[in-house]
């Protein structure tokens, strides 16, 4: 491997640069740095060139030249992905294609309830544009201030809105994609129903840039809820949380817009380490639930519904204690508490994280079996379990033993992953519920997925990207 | 072409028959007849052999032998499809693979809200099983008493439940598929979130049996609504119906579980021809809407909501008149009125039908422009327009001119299709919203879809079925 970053022929770099103009062809390593390192610093790559095209036409010309010259291309939008999909590898052979200048909101159609946006639109900007038009765009996740919708679609992002509204995939009606050859596949449909052949859209969504470059998309909008009620509940077991979820779904259906599970340990970490959070409940409980109800009618209506659910839960002995936020500010504080959990794990030392899903009914059993698996790998390791219970999706994180050694613990990364993921597989779960595969889980996916699934995915990859220039080394 | 049905080598027929046993290998043309003719009699094919396997293992062995011998296979479940996808062509070279004996409900998981069923389960049986378990399976369509879920998934069926719950695709979490080679792809996941590689499931769903044979699926269940309220409204224009839809979505959100548009003509045809229907509204209106609200809480709650919507509609001058069903029986009668529309078109003579979708905002303009296109092809032709307005999906049917000649009118089939579909395309709509492509629309799809889409679909087809034995001549 060449330590110089100039593995690409300078004449070729000039040809690529000419497409976007010198200003938007970054060759200086200082300029390039933010594009080859992921924000947490876990993924570092190398490249001699970052291209920042300003139009779909320029993306198309870049891909045509890439195909002509066999140059690997790594598409990138907000660079907030957690599995290294958007970062080039260390070979220095890849160029980075940043979509961030394609940041126009092309259209909002409030009657059809759609918004048409380019890949580089920041998620929060999109949410705000929908809000200004009197609509809700429900995709919501921690990185929303900087992640961009192209990456959200390419990684089929999840987040806290999935329970009622679905993943990024379900929110997407149509895509515009530049294929490896530079051809533009315009499938920007606003249609809820369209049975004219194979579902190509859903191949590009979630493909992490390995089949083509998503340059724009039509996304669904929803009516804005008129009342939002948030409650915090304390429960004696994960089984009780499952009962409360079933009860809440039965009463609220699609009005149940969040059901987040939090174990005592991450709850306590947050009380200990977070600045300015207030204790949601007076007493301690083994488990907590943050629940949200959205009403299309009114605040009073939402409040009546959430109180009805909690009363029934208390009556049935499912809920130990509960408090409904008495104001929007307190509701926000509950959410802030939930969103602060991940960072409050950091002061407790090194951690090994898992983004898993299992069938909802299996959550209590999973939690029990996984705990045994964890301590068999690292006695004293502390399970930090929280997540989107309503989606069967847990962030099943492990902190090193109290007072233990960070490095020694991180040395157990692979065996810990294997132990937890083996339990996941025993419940027919997923080892990547919402973050994707990228570089992080590629080897494990190939080693443990049914060989037939890997074979079919490879056939798709070969059919769409026969030269293998789209984000090589990612996913498959 | 050979008029004898025995185009297949008798020795090969014996080899296929040995897999399922003689009882389930139909060779007699009298036994075969129901499998090669579609119920309305529009599609007739030929075959020497219908196989009725009783297990996934038998399906697998059939496909292995088919690949070995290059024998084309037409998968079929309930044989209710409307585009000829499930009927063999006239060559006599295909064998029919009936999934109807794979009719087990493998599991109902009320906590995870899933049901796992085999391809041959009749839709209504599935609905009833869900209901008995205290859950709702919302896929609902006219053929539900005889259509089977394998076909519903292969055609990505729509129906009246799409507005709140989605198409068959959105209701499906996982599939089990026998590939052309006989290999079994087991992807029977119960997961709402699973980002481990490409979305293979959605390729098989909607592929009309051209990529593999769906033998089983995991489907979503929902809480049963506790109150269902149905209303019939009279309106002065399609534009008013669009305003009412926007108003209803704003107030009810996901509780709005149906919004069906009906023009005066099909309404009048039904009053004229249907046995025992009652006039829903006292006065005549140019347009009607059947609207349904489902409440997770109670009948009273649903009633209050639907009345609130209609009152607001009346106040804003959007609704001319409206009646809320005063009993479940009257609600059923309103639905029966809606479901009777298609057959009440028959006594009016020959018709040319279209299953189209456009962006919801474009519906009023589409209706206006399409009407002009229709009479330019056949002056006096009568537009019979109704459909799932909330999904942008209209059954835009045309009856021959009053007193006109059936055969002369049907001679205009192709130009009428072209004229209507040209208007659909001008609104970026779909020429097959919910029925699929099959044999009926294959040539038109290939001729009019963006060449890039056709090219990508052909690559998918070649990647999954390189020998071209899966349902040849359908879709692509």
From TrEMBL, chains A, B:
Keywords: FAD, Flavoprotein. Pfam families: FAD-oxidase_C, FAD_binding_4. This is Hydroxyacid dehydrogenase. InterPro entries: FAD-bd_oxidored_4_C (IPR004113), FAD-bd_PCMH (IPR016166), FAD-bd_PCMH-like_sf (IPR036318), FAD-bd_PCMH_sub1 (IPR016167), FAD-bd_PCMH_sub2 (IPR016169), FAD-linked_Oxase-like_C (IPR016164), FAD-oxidored/transferase_4 (IPR051264), Oxid_FAD_bind_N (IPR006094). One of its GO terms (biological process) is respiratory electron transport chain. The keyword Flavoprotein applies. Residues 43-224 form the FAD-binding PCMH-type domain. Belongs to the FAD-binding oxidoreductase/transferase type 4 family. It comes from the Bacteria. Its cofactor is FAD. PROSITE patterns: FAD_PCMH. One of its GO terms (molecular function) is catalytic activity.
């Amino acid at each position: 491997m060449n330590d110089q970053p100039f593995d690409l022929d300078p004449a070729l770099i000039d040809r690529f640069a000419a497409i976007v103009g010198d200003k938007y062809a970054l060759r200086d390593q200082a300029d390039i740095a933010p594009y080859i390192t992921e924000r947490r610093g876990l993924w570092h790559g190398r490249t001699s060139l970052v291209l920042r095209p300003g139009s779909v036409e320029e993306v198309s010309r870049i891909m045509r030249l890439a195909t002509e010259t066999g140059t690997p291309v790594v598409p990138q939008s907000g660079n907030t992905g957690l599995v290294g999909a958007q970062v080039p590898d260390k070979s220095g052979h890849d160029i980075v294609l940043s979509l961030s200048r394609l940041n126009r909101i092309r259209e909002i159609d409030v009657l059809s309830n759609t918004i048409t946006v380019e890949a580089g639109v920041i998620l929060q900007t999109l949410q705000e544009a929908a809000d200004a038009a009197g609509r809700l765009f429900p995709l919501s996740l921690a990185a929303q201030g900087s992640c961009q919708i192209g990456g959200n679609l390419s990684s089929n992002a999840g987040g806290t809105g999935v329970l009622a509204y679905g993943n990024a995939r379900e929110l997407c009606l149509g895509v515009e994609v530049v294929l490896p050859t530079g051809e533009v596949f315009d499938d920007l449909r606003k249609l809820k129903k369209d049975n004219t052949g194979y579902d190509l859209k859903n191949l590009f969504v979630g493909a992490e840039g390995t089949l083509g470059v998503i340059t724009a998309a039509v996304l669904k909008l929803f009516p804005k809820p008129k009342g939002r009620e948030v409650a915090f509940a304390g429960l004696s077991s994960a089984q009780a949380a499952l009962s409360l979820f079933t009860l809440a779904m039965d009463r609220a259906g699609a009005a149940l817009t969040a059901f987040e599970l939090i174990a005592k340990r991450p709850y306590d970490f947050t009380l200990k380490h977070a600045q300015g959070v207030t204790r949601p409940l007076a007493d301690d409980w083994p488990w907590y639930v943050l629940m949200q109800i959205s009403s299309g009618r009114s605040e009073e209506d939402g409040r009546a519904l959430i109180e009805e659910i909690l009363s029934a839960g208390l009556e049935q002995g499912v809920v130990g204690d509960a408090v409904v936020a008495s104001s929007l500010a307190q509701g926000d504080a509950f959410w802030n508490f939930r969103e602060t959990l991940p960072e409050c794990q950091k002061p407790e030392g090194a951690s090994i994280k898992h983004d898993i899903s299992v069938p909802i009914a299996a959550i209590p059993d999973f939690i029990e079996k996984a705990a045994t698996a964890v301590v068999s790998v690292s006695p004293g390791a502390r399970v930090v379990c929280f997540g989107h219970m309503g989606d069967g999706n847990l962030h099943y994180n492990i902190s090193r033993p109290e007072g233990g050694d960070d490095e020694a613990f991180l040395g157990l990364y692979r065996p810990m992953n294997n132990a937890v993921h083996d339990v996941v597989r025993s419940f027919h779960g997923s080892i990547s519920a919402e973050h994707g595969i990228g570089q992080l889980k590629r080897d494990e996916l190939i080693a443990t997925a049914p060989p037939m699934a890997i074979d079919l995915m490879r056939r798709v990859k070969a059919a769409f990207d026969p030269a293998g220039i789209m984000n090589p080394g990612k996913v498959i």
